[in-house]
Amino acid sequence: MSLGWKIFSRHRWLFLSGILALLAAGLVQGLLLGNAGIPFYPRDEPDIPPQRGGFSYAVDLFLGLFLWPLAYTGYQYLALGAVRGEAASLRDMLAPFRHPLSVLGAYWLSVIVAVVGLFLLVIPGIAWGLKFMFSPLVAADKGRATLDAMGESGALTVGHRWSLLGLAVVFLAPYLLAGAVAYLALVRELLHWGWWLLVAYGLELLVRPCG
User: pTM score > 0.70 for this model?
Assistant: First the structure.
């Protein structure tokens, strides 16, 4: 953690720029597709959720399934370059788009395996999630095929899974705290999923480079 903080401090403006780029993209998506849930002027009538058409839902689903996993992996790749001591730049966030099928396959297959493990028995789901957590990053970094990236991720995490589990607990703490505060305060607009997604991405992207 201390090493991660040093790296983050050294490249804080780069990391923060990457976070802001993702948050801005999420905000634009929410505004264009009607997900932001924030009124632009006061009104007396009850707050009625905006009606969204099938096209908005379809675009939203497409972006969630295909664009955001690539963008999120791009931020991880940006952090990886900084950890390696390379001349990292915001252009590094586009690296996953050079191997989109492999990165998306590794991302979603890892998610499916972890979720199935959680439904069968909780412990295997956690173990598999930790084992394959670097699969999309390996696919983006080395251009590996989906299954090869998952295999390499498993090899990279051998002997480090307890440490990774501890880091995962640390990463989850802001989510739990922010969720409790939002729930107790009953801040309706923040609980809207579009803005809550931005908060969640911001928290995770802020703490992940420290690991």
Answer: no
